[in-house]
Amino acid sequence: MSAKFAAGDLANGLAAPRDRGAWERLSANPKPEGRAFIAGRLMAARDGRVFEDISPIDGKSICTVARCGPADVATAVSAARDSFERGAWRRMEPKERKRILRRFAEAIRADVDRLALLETRDVGKPIQNSVSVDVANCADCIEYYAEFADKLYDEVAPTGPDDLALVRREPLGVVAAIVPWNYPLIISCWKVGPALLTGNSVVLKPAEQSPLSGIRLGELACEAGVPPGVLNVVPGFGEEAGKALALHPEVDLITFTGSTEVGRLMLRYAAESNLKRVALECGGKTPQVVFADADLEAAAAGIAWGIYYNSGETCHAGSRLIVHESVREALLAAISRVTATITLGNPLEPTTQMGALIDANHMRRVLGYIDSGVRDGARIALGGRQALTDSGGFYVEATVLDGVRPEMKVAREEIFGPVLAVMSFRDEAEAVRLANDTPYGLAAAVWTHDMNIAHRVSAALRAGTVWVNAFDRSTMATPFGGFKLSGSGRDRSPHAIDKYCDLKTIWTAYA
């Protein structure tokens, strides 16, 4: 997400600004819905189990949520398979499917207050970002893919005069979409949008830390006219509901965003079951490479927002700064000045720009990485401590670790928090070597006025996206995904559509 959104701009006129008290009053009633959404109906878990959904804002329970297990997953997959076989959605005239998806997008926009509150209370991100970035992008994504519905053509292959070979794009069947807790609305719609566009039925499994907006999406889709059973939502724990979904023999594709560790499990579950297809978007350790001739003020803004936006809980967060030694001190000073303008506070306060981490365990993990960096010889140049301790929530200061060496854990492992690891280089070759010295390959950035350097270095970096003199600029028209341990397959753009369909050749002989 870009710095302009992080600054709190309201996009698309989705909602009028409110003060903290107004948001708190809106969140007080009614209680959020925590039941599964299967075959067009809200359902408790079959065995009645629930879990507490804890808000990272203050450590208090928001509501109880259905703890779905294998039996509930089987019910959801059966509903999805039945809806697919009946064909009410996949056989629908494309222009009608487009109308329904556009109504779905408008329903999301109309429900902005509720969805934004669910997202902020579940995840701890600033309310203004939930409104102007998460809900806005969720609706835009559904609308973007809706427009493809009556514009995708099949093919006629070149053959001899006595034959006709049609190459048709057909939906896969049942898609399991397993999404993480850092951007629940956005990433859900990156998967649900193209999956529904192409006529599939979907079982969405939100992360147990952030189940509420996904359940609401299921309701809104049905209200917009998506037939019952086409979009189902099963909240629950990864090792229970997620594993059961990935192992289910009636699931044709797992599209997963999350950690590399769990991505490996998805591949294993696919192999152990029905060799279902797997699309993965996993971790990242994005380098920001700054050359001596760069605009240091612009680079500082891109770097600070690139690591502190969403409290660093972004898979492509710019967590490694690789800076030419001649401008290192000046750049760190500029980053400190930008960081001083980023307000850490209660996410329901409209002026807050950096909110809470997802839960207590993750906060301890982030603080543990900071301690590890110090033990290994790095120096805390900024932050480094837990913040807002009286709130009951889970907050960590914007942190800079200077003097990091490439072999340190903080340089190699994904921290997923507001921690910037700083290394320096002497020449271009060393910069490229340091930037590529990671098992991940999701994104990278290059800061320089020399376009020869920009082209050479961006070509040399092994990453799915490389920004030059910018960071986190994107639209729905650009694909998102990575190399190496960052996964395979792409979300966003027309390229994402391909993974939700298969090609069928129909050969007719006229002789």
Task: Describe the protein in words.
This protein is of the alpha/beta class and 511 residues long. The protein folds into two domains: 292 residues, Aldehyde Dehydrogenase, Chain A, domain 1, CATH 3.40.605; 189 residues, Aldehyde Dehydrogenase, Chain A, domain 2. The protein contains 16 helices and 24 strands. Strand 8, helix 8 and strand 9 form a beta-alpha-beta unit. The protein is globular and about 75 Å long.
Report the average pLDDT across residues. 95
Identify the CATH architecture of the largest domain.
3-Layer(aba) Sandwich
- What is the tally of helical segments? 16
Beta-strand share of residues? 15-25%
CATH topology of the largest domain: Aldehyde Dehydrogenase, Chain A, domain 1
Shape: globular
First-residue to last-residue Cα separation: 58 Å
Number of domains: 2
- Sheet with the most strands, sense and barrel status: 7 strands, mixed
Report the structural category. alpha/beta
The CATH class of the largest domain is identified as Alpha Beta
> Runs with pLDDT <50, length 5+?
1-14
